[in-house]
Design goal:
Largest sheet of chain B: none
Shape of chain A: elongated
Order of helices and strands of chain B: HHHHHHHHHHHH
CATH topology of chain B: MetI-like fold
Helix content of chain A: 10-25%
CATH class of the largest domain in chain A: Alpha Beta
CATH class of chain B: Mainly Alpha
Number of strands of chain A: 20
Number of domains of chain A: 2
Number of domains of chain B: 1
Oligomer: heterodimer
CATH architecture of chain B: Orthogonal Bundle
Amino acid sequence: MSPTTRNPAASVDLVGVGKRYGAAWAVEDLALHIDAGQFVSLLGPSGCGKTTTLRMVGGFELPDRGSVLIGDADMGSLPPHRRPVNTVFQSYALFPHLSVADNVAYGLTMRRVPKAQLRDRVDRALDLVRMRSFAGRRPSQLSGGQQQRVAMARALVNEPSVLLLDEPMSALDRKLREEMQVELKLLQHELGVTFVFVTHDQGEALTMSDQIAVMNQGRLEQYGTPSEVYDHPATGFVAGFIGQQNFLSGRVTGIRGDGALVQTPQGVVLATTDAPLSTGDEVQVAVRPETVQVLSGVPTAEEPNRIAATLRGVSQIGHTLQLVAETPDGTRIVAAIPRSAAPPTQLDVPVTIAWAPAAVRIFPAGPTAAPPTAP
Amino acid sequence: MTVADPPAPRVRRSRAPGTLAWLGAIPLGVWMLLFFLLPFGLIVWYSFGYKPDIYSTVSNDQLSLGRYAQALSPAFLQIFWRTLGIAVIGTVIAGLIAYPMAYWMAVVVPPRWRGLVLALVLVPYWTNFLVRTLGWSVLLSGSGPLSTALQAAGGQPLAVLNTSGAVQLGVVYNYLPLMILPIYVALDRLDPRLLEASRDLGANAVRTFWRITLPLSAPGVTAGTLLVFVPLMGDYITPAVLGGAKGSMVGQMVAGQFTNAQNWALGSAMAILLMVAIFGVTAIAGAVVRGLSWTLSRATRLVPLGGRA
């Protein structure tokens, strides 16, 4: 479809957007700039306001505060059918009384595209998602993955400036979902359309996005590239929500030039940080399993980032061994170590848990997204 | 992703195990036999007979089509056409009132109030049909409260009672819930996300209604139309109470032959003619609607799908 693209990809700006249901703010003071042609995910747990945000861009909800801009145009209270966006709905919302071809043709018919051109564009849209041979079927005669592709074609045939996707993969099984992730990313790259993708699946967001907006309780927690949100989570919530983390709680006992010393019940942690901390602050430290080392034997000296534990579980996940160690107070720490590194695997023997100061993230004490670790 | 992944298999209800499952259909069969086929057969049989003398209602010792010829009298035909007019107009008016009403109930009213609104639609049904109709005759009579109020305001006394206008009003009132309920059910089942999808694809509210809402609620409209039109054609209580001589309907003539005239043969022939007429009108109307929607879908769709999913 690219040769006849009518609407060039547009940027999306949310300026101080707020949406209230009753007394509760579903989205609060949200500011977000999405570059034209980018693949941006709105990521967060259910109820975080991501779908409400998408619906405000689509025009299905109007913000109580702030404004939504597409390109340079303020959408104001423009109804959905007058906005240069199209949506792929969570349940696809295909019209059950129309054939696949007529579902795809619907938007073009509404714009009174001549019938000769119509058939051609519908065919090309169906080719794009490899569904042309199903043109005469009813939606009820298609599998979930096929319906999803028809929903994509039905939206893309209109050549929108921005495509909104509301958890389009949540109804698919895992294998199909992984295939569709690749497919979708390639499609977006090929068409150059701005994609705004709502998901609660961090893996999905990390795989496909140029930028991820992590949301929680109606607020934006962090906006950055997948590697930024993964490697440099801005808040404890982001650290816990994206990827696995080992969380330990403690109190700052000293500041060195390059970092902070934190006394936790499990041991002393040294963290490289430039956060403004002072002695006595209650904090949480977070360490990713893949940065944790497991060494044989008990710690030899009172050294920071060396914690005594007992190995309780070993499981193999692909090329990686996942080790679960338990400290004397019962805290579990998870390590993900390449099999080639040959860590100790004998259960119920003392081990030393270790990590580098640079691997530690430090956050103010508070609630986190996930329980510290899953065994 | 491969194009070859199979479509969702159509679920077929598996047969109940064992061969005695058909026994479950016996009560229905007996019911149909005793209360439909048998009476219907008797009416057909009687319609070929005659009234032998003043004290007997029917005799079948000589069979003929004479009662049918007798039934198709100018008086019968005149009242039949009036009945058809009242029934068609009544069904159309009921539909025009019921659709927005049902739409309001299913879409606009917040879900927690829907039960109450449904109950309000049904409450009149819990009072006797005759009593409700008599209520209208009180209201519409020349000496009734409405008329008195009109005269107090300087108008003429109300002259609606005992006209076909009063019958028209009465049947719309009596049959309206039967139109509202099936349309309500159809609209209630309509997925609101389909309407959002239509808006998203560039259709305004009006075009969304014609292209999505109406086609998907059409089964409800069909059911409502049948539920109103068929019993309305045979109604004789409403015209008896509200219609007088100027507003009588065919159902009254049939009833009159069975009761006052004690001529079951002629009454039966009239009843059969009425049934054939109802069937014919329904079939013609159905064919017209089908033809229209087929032509329309030929014009607007790439792949017209016949029938319904």
